[in-house]
Amino acid sequence: MLQPARTWFRTERQTRSNAAFSATSGTIRPLRNDEKPAFRDLLLRLDPESRRNRFAMSVDDSFIVAYAETSFAQSPVIFGYFEDGVLRGTAELRILPEPHMAEAAFCVEKDWRRRGVGTRLMDALLNEARDLRIEHIYISCLAANLTMQALARKFAARLTYQSGDMIGLIKAPKARIKDGIRALARTLFRPHRQGAAAFGQQS
């Protein structure tokens, strides 16, 4: 059985120091529609290897511009990590056709990796998944993307190798009644988003 990611995270946080978190002084919050340019600029700053890890293929600037323009539609929320007012990392959540399933994609700028940003983004994303009554988070990344695999393992992901990619499944924390009420309120008052999304992994 998969261990709920939230159970792991609470236990781990209680038994280790806060060094990984104190290394990042930025803020994590959902992106607004008018912050689409900041999302685009973050992706454009990625080097070729980071782009390949993020999108599971080599992409040019035109692909990234088109992706950023249409990325908000199929994602109930995109969390951003901001430091000194600049977007340095994101976590995207996309609802899948399967009941209570969602796909996650991560991106952290190179100089901000290994500082706990990915872990904080995953934590925010799992809270959102709980509010939306999502039971499992699906993650796909290249077999060579060891950073993303390490992040998934931190949250008790079950990883399998399929056709050159690593597929991860994370059990989301269970929703509570008050979480359902909060999720309904957020859905009613969240701005409408337009576009389409394509997912890969880069953390």
Structural overview:
This protein has 203 residues and is of the alpha+beta class. It has a single domain (5-189), classed as Aminopeptidase. Helices cover 39% and strands 24% of the residues. The protein has eight helices and seven strands, in the order ααβαααβββαβαββα. Strands 1-2-3-4-5-7-6 form a seven-stranded mixed sheet, sandwiched between helices. A hairpin with a 2-residue loop joins β2 and β3 (86-95). α3 (36-44) runs antiparallel to α5 (61-70). The protein starts with a helix and ends in a 14-residue tail after the last helix.
Task: Sum this structure up briefly.
This protein is 39% helix and 24% strand. It has helices at residues 5-15, 19-22, 36-44, 48-55, 61-70, 117-131, 146-154, 177-189; strands at 27-30, 77-83, 86-95, 101-108, 136-142, 158-162, 165-171.
Quickly give the structural class.
alpha+beta
CATH class assignment: Alpha Beta
Main sheet: strands, sense, barrel: 7 strands, mixed
State the distance separating the first and last CA atoms.
Answer: 26 Å
What spatial form do the alpha-carbon principal axes imply?
Answer: globular
**Order of secondary-structure elements:** HHEHHHEEEHEHEEH
Q: What kind of oligomer do you see?
A: single chain
CATH level-four homologous superfamily name? Gcn5-related N-acetyltransferase (GNAT)
In the predicted model, the low-confidence regions spanning at least 5 consecutive residues are 7-23, 191-198
Helix share of residues?
Answer: 25-40%
CATH architecture: 3-Layer(aba) Sandwich
Question: How many domain units?
Answer: 1
Number of separate strands: 7
